[in-house]
Amino acid sequence: MIFALATPVTQSAIAVFRISGEGCCQKFNSVINKSITDYRKVFLRDIIWEGALVDRCSVVYYSSPNSYTGEDSVEVYCHGSLSVIRSLTEVFLSLGFREADPGEFSRVAFENGKLSLNEAEAVVDLINSEDAVRGQLFSEAVAGKLSEIVYTLGNDVDALRVFVEGSIDFSDEDHNFIAAGNVEERLVKIKSSLAGLIDSSLVSSRKLSKNRVLFFGPPNTGKSSLFNRMLGFDRALVSKIPGTTRDLIDSEIFYNSVNMELVDSAGIRETDDLVERSGVALSGDEVKSSNLILIILDHDTEELLSRFKSKLSDKKHLVVFNKSDKQHPNGFYDCVVSAKSGDGVQELKNKIFELIQEDKDVTKKTFVIRDRHLKCFKSALSSLNACIEKISNEYDVDIAAEDLRLVRSSLDEFLGIKHSDDLLGDIFKDFCIGK
């Protein structure tokens, strides 16, 4: 039996504990003032331990298999006091419950057939989603819509494989079973559906889902001051001495329902200081993993624009002129601001929001998938193409049947019907405790 706090360890109005495992409901009955026998109803109960009241909580029991994990489960809604959280944790441990590993509830749900593997992955992606659009796409995956499509494609492949293998047994007959069964047309239809699924899916990595905005440019152009101004408080150290920022400093802001992670970086310049040089190297590396780059220049560094643009390749960026309170820019800039007075900062926020939101790939997509999913789909598509070629040219029909087996194998790998323990470990280690 496992338990976990499903809400953050912080002072709040309520905290939620989750318990799962055979016999957990009966075990929990031993520490409440009145036993519960009904399921999926909310009950108000006192938790008593060693003769003392721990807390008065709302409690819901779930019976196997009608729970998130597919096992008997309990959810406890207590007051969000740190002392109550600590006391309840001690109660659960004393009752013999084990604290759950990250993602263990979802892993149990997957192992009990309550979730497919991609649905389980979508759970953690939904929790980590940074904006409403991605959140909606991940919700569709959690609800099982993507799995349903892949299950249907798998069944269609199975039906064709049975037909193709059956035709091999009658290859001596004077009858073209492949043509009569419209096998090629059916294969092309499956291929079209699979290719459409790939085209309608956005491949999202965890690092790029954070909406990272990097402050980039030469030293002493006011990057840290602008960073602090946009946050609304002093997060980065500000100094007139070049090279003050020697490491990446990040902080999150929530703007127009979008979470953005602002990253202040060391100014790019030649330096003999080993620590500062390391910070400069980090700044260059961060360019690759950020969604949007802000090139921050001032009146003393305008001539360096082409140099810094050359470091971005095709990365989305804005060129920002800072210190407009001292001097106006000579050339054209996407945004002109003053970190000191705040002039232009609101316009800069709006431009950042527009660029992050104008990701057409997101708004036109039906699902968000991971690199692992794309690999499975492309593998299935490759085997499908090989099968179509053999069928259309009427050769190696027996090998064409093997191609169809490989198609189904790739789809099964996506769903988690076939998997390795290492794969499961890699997936569920990214989950938070309590999920």
Summarize the structure.
By secondary structure, the protein is α/β, with parallel strands linked by helices. The protein has helices at residues 24-29, 82-94, 104-111, 117-128, 132-142, 145-169, 177-180, 183-199, 223-231, 274-289, 305-309, 345-357, 360-363, 371-393, 397-415, 421-428, and strands at residues 2-5, 12-20, 42-49, 52-62, 73-80, 98-99, 201-203, 212-216, 249-255, 258-264, 292-297, 317-321, 335-336, 367-369.
Write the layout of secondary structure elements.
Blueprint: E1 2-5, E2 12-20, H1 24-29, E3 42-49, E4 52-62, E5 73-80, H2 82-94, E6 98-99, H3 104-111, H4 117-128, H5 132-142, H6 145-169, H7 177-180, H8 183-199, E7 201-203, E8 212-216, H9 223-231, E9 249-255, E10 258-264, H10 274-289, E11 292-297, H11 305-309, E12 317-321, E13 335-336, H12 345-357, H13 360-363, E14 367-369, H14 371-393, H15 397-415, H16 421-428
Parallel strand pairs: 1-6, 7-14, 8-10, 8-11, 11-12, 12-13
Antiparallel strand pairs: 1-2, 2-5, 3-4, 4-5, 9-10
Helix pairs in contact: 4-5, 6-8, 6-15, 8-14, 14-15
Detailed description of the structure:
The protein is α/β, with parallel strands linked by helices and 435 residues long. The protein has 3 domains: 2-100, Gyrase A, domain 2 (2-Layer Sandwich), CATH 3.30.1360.120; 121-200 and 367-428, tRNA modification GTPase MnmE domain 2 (Four Helix Bundle (Hemerythrin (Met), subunit A)), CATH 1.20.120.430; 208-361, Rossmann fold. It is 44% helix and 18% strand. The protein has helices spanning 24-29, 82-94, 104-111, 117-128, 132-142, 145-169, 177-180, 183-199, 223-231, 274-289, 305-309, 345-357, 360-363, 371-393, 397-415, 421-428; strands at 2-5, 12-20, 42-49, 52-62, 73-80, 98-99, 201-203, 212-216, 249-255, 258-264, 292-297, 317-321, 335-336, 367-369. A 6-stranded mixed β-sheet has the order 3-4-5-2-1-6. Strands 9-10-8-11-12-13 form a 6-stranded mixed β-sheet, sandwiched between helices. Helix 4 (117-128) packs antiparallel against helix 5 (132-142), helix 6 (145-169) runs antiparallel to helix 8 and helix 14 (371-393) runs antiparallel to helix 15 (397-415). The chain is flat. The relative contact order is 0.13. The model is unreliable at 235-247 and 269-282 (pLDDT under 50).
